[in-house]
Amino acid sequence: MLDTALNSLHGLPAFATYFALALLLLMIFVRCYTWLTPHDEFGLIRANNPAAAIAFAGAFIGFAWPLSSAITNSLSLLDCAIWGAVALLVQLIAFFISSLLLKQLPKRISDGELAAGIFSAGCSIAIGMLNAACMSY
Could you report the per-residue pLDDT of 81-137, keeping only the tens digit for each? Predict the structure, then answer.
């Protein structure tokens, strides 16, 4: 029984390394996303703007989903980091495309329009799902 428990812990260093990389990539995503979008997500969320919270949560999930696929399918930490960067880029492009589809999307989110926040979140999550599926190489 003790051998089984010790064998279970054998994968702990790999888990910790991939988890740390995932957290780092999530922080990089948050920094890039909040830097490139024209509205202040955290300021709006602190001001209790539900549209901003929904839109940002959708982008966060839309990035985390393919990142989890990259972790699952990667051959190494470097491979995972590269595909994580691809997921980040795709999610940023998704925001810009959704901004083209819905005129004045950032302003509408800033103004608290729930429909705009839900639309943005839906686009981000849908693109994230497709991105994750395409990473099953």
Answer: 999 999 999 999 999 999 999 999 999 999 999 999 999 999 999 999 999 999 876
101, burial (CB in 10 Å: exposed 0-12, middle 13-18, buried 19+): exposed
Residue 1 reports pLDDT greater than 90: no
User: How far, in Å, CA of 86 to CA of 109, rounded?
Assistant: 26
Are 108 and 50 a contacting pair, CB within 8 Å? no
Give the chain's length.
137
Distance, CA of 109 to CA of 49 (rounded, Å): 8
Taking each helix axis from N to C end, the angle separating 77-101 and 114-134, rounded to the nearest 10 degrees, works out to 140
CA distance 51 to 28: 23
DSSP letter (8 states) at residue 50: H
Tell how far CA 131 is from the center of its chain.
11
